[in-house]
Amino acid sequence: MSALLPGSTIGILGGGQLGRMTAMAARSLGYRVQVMDPDPSCPARFVVDACFEGAWDDARAAADLARGSDVVTLEIEQVSLACLEAAAKFAPVRPGREMLRIIQDRILQKTWLSENGFPVGEFRPIQSETDLQNAAIALGGRLFVKSARGGYDGRSQAKIGFGESAHSGQAEVAETWKLLGERPAIAEKALDLDREISVMVARAPNGETKSFPAATNHHERQILAWSVIPSSIPASLEEKAQRLARSIADKMHLEGILAVEMFVTRDDRLLVNELAPRPHNSYHASERACVTSQFEQMVRAVCDLPLGDTSVVVPAAIVNLLGDLWLDQQPRFDQALRVPGVRLHLYEKHQPRKGRKMGHLSAVGKTPEEAVQRVLEAKDLL
């Protein structure tokens, strides 16, 4: 396998903030970049060489992107398999079709993990309201229900059995089934969690594999609120998480990067939650914390370059800035930037909406705890 050297063109399916930040890393390395996105004014539009307008199932636009690219990758897993197949006729697509086929469907994904011996929490595939009624009983009454396809940041997800009685009645189940559009879903047993972590792993076509130190993640309303690298989990658990992420990457024959979201339970079990074959919100702090950012590592991986050093240079944390902050007044970024070690990262999205990720703040500190304290202090000053 020969490396694609700087001067080559990288095509990215998706031009959101992840595509934008990947493109900026690629341009620093000397690559040309073009993207495909449904929005001609997407965040990546202003930092790339070309932007092809096309929906996530527009195979013709994906082919047009690939014709002028030396390699094609992605920043969103909702791209249709038809797009990947069309692009693959003109350039290598990394990660590939089979990996996306499994990850795009939560039922397939969780089943694949379970069948291949990777630890997951109890779950049930849901095809009907009756399935959901049975799952609520089998899983102990408290469960999370997620649409099998699509949905992120808490969208197309619901909880059952978290009311005062902590038991799920038929009416609540029926309401949840309607809320999720009466479509295939997955029901997962609620777990007694100590924390949530993630591990980002990169694997090049030549087989070289490297993973980043685990990040600790804190969610609010099922949306990532803040994240910090490194995690403060015990060394034995860190080693286990690293082995688990690398094993999944190898088994899936990953070419690119893969974020493995994991649960740490109060009885010290480590369970896989979900997989994301792209840059991940929980590793935005890698730009500050690590020798190599997740974005540069993705470029290295898909271009078959030697993978970068993932060592932590300094602890760093990020906090997401949602559109809610803009609804009443312009955020006071001048005040937030008074906090030592804080930087501002905006995605050039022009329409703030409730729950929409508009940017993030990052901060470094002597310890992970100090980095988190600083970035949360800065957000409070907005």
Spell out the key features of this protein.
single chain, 382 residues, alpha+beta, Rossmann fold, Dna Ligase, domain 1, D-amino Acid Aminotransferase, Chain A, domain 1, 3 domains, 9-stranded antiparallel β-sheet, 4-stranded parallel β-sheet, 12 helices, 26% strand, globular
Helix and strand arrangement:
Layout lengths: L8 E5 L3 H12 L3 E6 L12 E4 L5 H9 L3 E4 L6 H8 L8 H8 L1 H10 L7 E4 L2 H10 L4 E5 L9 E4 L9 H10 L5 E5 L3 E11 L5 E3 L3 E6 L2 E7 L5 H17 L4 E10 L4 E7 L9 H4 L4 H9 L13 E7 L10 H4 L5 E5 L10 E8 L3 H13 L2
Parallel strand pairs: 1-2, 1-4, 2-3
Antiparallel strand pairs: 5-8, 6-7, 6-8, 9-10, 9-11, 9-13, 11-12, 12-15, 13-14, 15-17, 16-17
Helix pairs in contact: 1-10, 2-3, 4-5, 6-7
Quaternary class: single chain
Shape: globular
CATH architecture of the largest domain: 2-Layer Sandwich
Which structural class best describes the helix and strand composition? Answer: alpha+beta
User: What name goes with the CATH superfamily of the largest domain?
Assistant: ATP-grasp fold, B domain
Q: Report the count of strand segments.
A: 17
The CATH first-level class of the largest domain comes to Alpha Beta
With helices defined by DSSP (H or I, 4 residues minimum), what is the helix count? 12
What's the structural domain tally? 3
